[in-house]
Amino acid sequence: MPIYNILRTKKVKSRSKITQVARHNFRLRHQQNIDANRTHLNRVYVNTLEVDTTNASSLQEELTAHYKKLDVKEKDGNVFMMEFVISASPEFFKSKSKKQVDDWASHQVEFMKKEFGEQLKVAILHMDERTPHFHFLVSTEMKSIKKYKNQKGEFHKESWSLNAKRYDPKFLRELHDRHAICNKRFGLVRGVRNSKKKHKELKEFYKMIDEALNTNFDKTIERTINDLEAGWFSGKVSIAEIREKFKPMMNTLLKSNEILRKKFLFDIKQWAENLYKQKEEQEAKQLELDKQERELCARRELYADALNSKNSDISVLSDLRERIEELEAENVRLNAENEAFKALVDPRPTPDSANHQKSLKALKI
């Protein structure tokens, strides 16, 4: 079974979201999936903004100060920060020594520094969840240079803005490709390209688990025990003893069963969402194919008209060519007749006629 390299990303579009990111990454809030006994193993690898990791507001304050220093022009809909999560399949970390995990971690940091340079503001490794993983926070400022001329010469002006347009699907796929190549040394492989699977926010899953764990099954258990009392256990075993020994176990089993049921419903929901998206994509593709077919039909008719027009033009040209040949033949004939007519009107002297004229002159003398 392959062990996968994992890279995910999301856009952070508001300062309140930046604060939420800080609360999670710096462990400033309670979370069901965190082992507090291992939180001390977490490690900050990069903190160029010098964020106070004990203050949830510090991250957005320092990032805002950074943008203000550059005189960044903010606009509605700006992406303030990109968050990348890097990890691997849980099996990868089994039986790994601290040195091996540190080697993997250092490799991830170097990769992200090479990709994003000074825009990499925070990198933190979490070791207190089920699977070790990184959170990388990347700023989105972009420099523009405008050139202009006046009487004094040519000049240029620098300006900064927030721009996350480069983080399109193509860029992210290629980033994932490069990251997978970088991690081949650890035996990790890239996930399936263009997969339809989507990462779900953990909070939805945790909410479902909390609901199941907080469900009160006392009435269900009591009803079951009372049924036992009226059945074949009656008179053989004390109901109080059954209640004491089996109620905790039944409560655990029922809660486990409720978790499994909710997990099944959760999986069904994800499957339905993916199916719906695939259906929408298929319908969109069909509409595009229908559009292309209509365009092809229109072009086919246009080409047919053009060919018919061209054939008509060829027929006209053929008739004109025949007419020209007839006119040229007529012209040759007329030229010949014209030459004959000229000969009759103005006959040229011949040697015999010249001698005859000389004889006449001699006789007159």
Identify the overall geometry. Answer: elongated
Number of helices: 9
Mean pLDDT: 79
The CATH architecture term of the largest domain is: 2-Layer Sandwich
At the first level of CATH, the class of the largest domain is: Alpha Beta
Q: Report the end-to-end length measured between terminal Cα atoms.
A: 140 Å
Class of secondary structure makeup: alpha+beta
Taken together, the total number of domains comes to 2
Strand order of the largest sheet: 1-3-5-4-2
Order of secondary-structure elements = EHEHEHHEEEEHHHHH
Radius of gyration: 45 Å
**Uncertain segments:** 229-234
Number of strands: 7
Largest sheet: 5 strands, antiparallel
As a percent range, the share of strand residues is 15-25%
- Summarize the amount of helix as a percent range: 55-70%
Structural features:
alpha+beta; 365 residues; 5-stranded antiparallel beta sheet; Plasmid recombination enzyme; 9 helices; 15% strand; 7 strands; Mob_Pre; coiled coil
Structure overview:
- The protein is α+β, with helices and mostly antiparallel strands and 365 residues long.
- The protein folds into 2 domains: 5-195, BirA Bifunctional Protein, domain 2, CATH 3.30.930.30; 198-347.
- It has helices spanning 15-25, 58-69, 90-93, 98-116, 169-182, 202-213, 218-229, 239-345, 351-364, and strands spanning 5-12, 43-47, 81-88, 120-126, 133-139, 141-150, 153-162.
- The strands form 2 sheets. Strands 1-3-5-4-2 form a 5-stranded antiparallel beta sheet. Strands 6-7 form a two-stranded antiparallel sheet.
- A hairpin with a 6-residue loop joins β4 and β5.
- α7 (218-229) crosses α8 (239-345).
- The longest helix is centred in the last third of the chain and has 107 residues, at 239-345.
- The model is unreliable at 229-234 (pLDDT under 50).
